[in-house]
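Hi C.,

You asked whether I'd gotten around to modeling the 263-residue construct. I have! Everything is below, sequence then structure, no commentary in between.
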Amino acid sequence: MGGTPFEPGERALLIDDRGRRYLVRLRPGETWHSHGGAIPHDLILGSAEGARLRSTGGMAFVCFRPRLADFVLKMPRGAQVVYPKDLGAILVEADIHPGARVLEAGTGSGALTLALARAVGPEGRVVSYELRPEFHAKAVQNVEAFFGKLPAWLDLREGDVTEVVEAGETFDRVVLDMPEPWGPLPTVLRILDPGGVVCTYLPTTVQVQTAVLALQAHGFEQVATFEVLHRSWHVTERSVRPDHRMVAHTGFITVARRGGDAD
């Protein structure tokens, strides 16, 4: 059974025998160079996923299309990206589903934006605000690199998220990946449907405490905070043990629900 062969312009993930990963954009006639030797792009183009190739130095590589998790960790970045372990938790706990209308701030390098856009699909909508023009530009590049073009249902905006009120839009999910998410909460109350979910992503306990108290003060309900720790395991014929290193704390995720308006 054959797979779809690699085409020019696509990105290929090359993995060596030690598990090291390299993201390469394929262009006819070009050559990718590594410590283990060179691989002509033409050797990859036309091959199916899973092909095993050897560099000019004799090193073996297996070639796949990158998963979202692979792309996020290897893509160019301006702001710190949200790690894949947290992306999954945000999508589930904030209940980002096909057809959802999601407001995001800020876009950063676009890692969370990519996950949100793919989760809501063509029937949904994602509007993402970013204050810093250099981050906005980098996110546009990363989104175009992953999808091939900006999806029609994704709107990347440069500016302050509070400007969304002027557009008269409403949303059923709001994700705030910004240092002070309590600032736009009055705006969130105006544009988030009753029963909608707001989610914040913050690195420190001081920020989390301020955010949680602000959510409660603004009348949000079911406020809950957690973090995700990711530990891989080493599995061989002779032993099964946890790896010595793990991805521990990266950020705190807080989710809350907007209650109905008072009578």
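If it helps when you're writing up: Residues 94 and 197 are 6 Å apart (CA to CA).

Thanks,
B.
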